[in-house]
Design brief:
Innate immunity protein that plays several important functions in antimicrobial and antitumor defense systems. Belongs to the N-acetylmuramoyl-L-alanine amidase 2 family. The chain is of the alpha/beta class and 190 residues long. 27% of the residues lie in helices and 16% in strands. It has five helices and six strands. Strands 1-4-3-5-2-6 form a six-stranded mixed sheet, with helices on both faces. The relative contact order is 0.20. Bound molecules: 2-acetamido-2-deoxy-beta-D-glucopyranose (2 copies) and zinc ion.
């Protein structure tokens, strides 16, 4: 529709084609400039490859299109920077039910997503509340590809351990329904 077209800048061309991303198994990654990120106040470099990947949910609204996921991600960045007073959006990457991955702090910057674990992990967060409902197949596939992508690009150790946020802190994150799924994935260890 015209409304959607007006929200999609020329630099977003190509994002409609899934499966691109430069690597064998990398999902489509919407860069910070493509979703309209604010610059971070500061950055601490992540020492890679890290041994852990930690899965979260945002516990907010779900999104199933590029336009609605961009709005969600912008809102989360504003909340983390303005209310939490963090230097940037907390997560390394976010995953939408549009099947796309949204770059947060990215591969090379320490996140703010799991206290005590940020410097040794990548934090991936599904956009939505997955307490009573599982993410759709597009989001689950994008997350699995993102993990493979992290290994193939050398940011995540080949012998990595997968965890849910609740495994490292007192929280319901990433929601019961999503947690029940990730605990069946390769290399999960509570
Ligand atoms: C997530 O969903 C559960 C179940 O519907 C609900 O109890 C909880 O309050 C929701 N979380 C937030 C942050 O809205
Ligand atoms: C061990 C650990 O990381 N504990 C933290 C869990 O989260 C609460 C706040 O939600 C912190 O206060 C703890 O330090
Ligand atoms: Zn979490």
């Amino acid at each position: 529709s015209g409304t959607t077209g007006s929200l999609v800048a020329p630099s977003l061309k190509g994002l409609g084609r899934r499966g691109e991303g430069g690597g064998i198994s990398c999902p489509t990654i919407v860069s910070r400039s493509q979703w309209g990120a604010r610059p971070p106040r500061s950055r601490v470099q992540l020492r890679t490859p890290v041994p852990f990947v930690i899965i979260h949910h945002t516990a907010g609204n779900r999104c199933t299109s590029l336009a609605s996921c961009r709005q969600q991600v912008k809102g989360i960045q504003n909340y983390h920077m303005d209310n939490q007073r963090w230097s940037d959006i907390g997560y390394n990457f976010l995953i939408g039910e549009d099947g796309r991955v949204y770059e947060g702090r990215g591969w090379r910057t320490v996140g703010a997503h799991a206290r005590g674990w940020n410097a040794k992990s990548l934090g991936f967060s599904f956009l939505g509340n997955f307490s009573n409902r599982a993410p759709n197949a597009a989001a689950l596939n994008a997350a699995k590809k993102l993990i493979q992508c992290a290994v193939s690009r050398g940011y995540l150790s080949r012998s990595y351990t997968l965890k849910g946020h609740r495994n490292v802190n007192q929280t319901s994150c990433p929601g019961n329904s999503l947690y029940a799924i990730i605990r069946t994935w390769p290399r999960f260890k509570a």
